[in-house]
Amino acid sequence: MHEAMTCLYCQFPEALRAGLLVSAVCALLGVFVILKRAVFIGITLSEVATCGVAASFLLGIPPLAGSLVLVLASVSLLAIPFEKQRIPRDTLMGIMFIAASALSILLVSKSGPGLMEVNAVLYGDLILSSKKELYTLLALLVPALVLFLIFLRPILYSFIDREAARVLGIKTWIWESLYFLMLGVVISATSQIAGALLVFCYLVVCPATALILSKRIKWVLAIAPIAGMLATFLGMVISFEHDFPTNQTICIVSCVLFGIAAAASWIYRKIIPINQPH
Amino acid sequence: MSGSIITCEDVCVAYGRTEVLHQVNLEIPEGIFLPFTGPNGSGKTSLLRAMLGLIPIRRGRIHSPFHQNTAGYVPQHKVIDPLFPVSVRQIVGMGLYPKRRRFRPLSAEQRDAIENALAMLDMAEHADKTFRELSGGMKQKTLIARALVSGPDVIIMDEPTSELDEQSEREVLGYLLKLNREQGKTVLMAHHDLELMRTLTSSMCQVRHGKAAIVSIGDGGPANA
Hints:
The complex is a heterodimer of chains A (278) and B (225).
Chain A: H1 2-11, H2 13-35, H3 39-59, H4 63-78, H5 89-110, H6 115-123, H7 131-150, H8 152-160, H9 162-167, H10 172-194, H11 196-213, H12 217-242, H13 246-275
Chain B: E1 4-15, E2 18-29, E3 33-37, H1 44-51, E4 59-63, E5 72-74, H2 88-94, H3 108-120, H4 136-148, E6 154-158, H5 166-183, E7 186-190, H6 194-200, E8 203-208, E9 211-216
Parallel strand pairs in B: 3-7, 3-8, 5-6, 6-7
Antiparallel strand pairs in B: 1-2, 1-4, 8-9
């Protein structure tokens, strides 16, 4: 195991760094994806980002540009207040997911480069991350992370109780839009490198692990990135040692960590009442 | 009482093509304890929400001081998703947002204000519980404490006691009356129990068929005397 760790760091330092960065930022933003009960937005935007990458191949533009344009357009569409619409937001997300998934395949079938090459870019493989991709991630994810932490309080209050927040003078639409804009940028940047499935895993499974372990928001926000980074590190080491596909191994490790957290939480809740005085 | 604190001039509010308030004219005196009564769907909630600027008005004008000093607001429903891992103390602390400085922790004075608001509503022992761990009545008390924590001049509540048992309702209403009588706070609240309101105050705002008017309700309490 120790040997695998050393080899992994020596041979794929960028992959390890990129994985830790992607997991930490996605897991942190994912806490609000779960709390807003908008889990489906994670997989929808990941799939839209993939579609953007596919379209870029056909148009001959940088994949990140195509991915960003499509994801931000989708975020703007989803930001429309749906409370008074006849179709709920979830349904629109479902339609977008289906369209993006199908269109990705159609675009790939008509694109110039070889199918294998396009598939590698479309579905990502963390272990193949390059130095250039790591710098791109740093340039996009670090500002998003900083903005999120700076404006955490108004974002949190807007999400907890929008009307009360408005009465308190919080411009809720600004903070909600900012959050979804950051989410869009993060998903665009990470989907191409980590793939839609792994990004979705970071957005959902790691925050869920944190939410199971703590009932304090500050701890949840601290545990979620740690859970993401731990799953990434262990997943990469296991995949390296046993020659498994990296992304899928990380996903399985994340789910195992969630299972352990759920079991630990259940045992804790069963034991604590016994120790409490009646 | 020293003049009007909120003035509505020909206010019309509509949802789509349905107009729920038609040319409402009201002058709400400062320091009044004023229940808004009326049948379901009469427009009580819409009127209060329009005063707070939460819904746009189609025509007319509302003059209120809320751009200078925020109102304490208790919404009608259990608006906080129990999924949020926030404690009662944190929710009450949310009411201090306009007074807090970014990146600064709560001051000792602000922490005291939170503890006082919790103590006044008998919620001190539940301060560390999360919202999902509370009963309906406790949730309502938490929202009331959040509305009161910043010491607003105007408190607007939409059925604030709807989730409370009879004893808790009397306690909360008693506390609101005390705020009104001793500190001169203006208290506006939608309430369905006309008979109970008769015992507390001498006037109310009757909302019916999209119209609103302040009327006398006889004996009343000393709040508006």
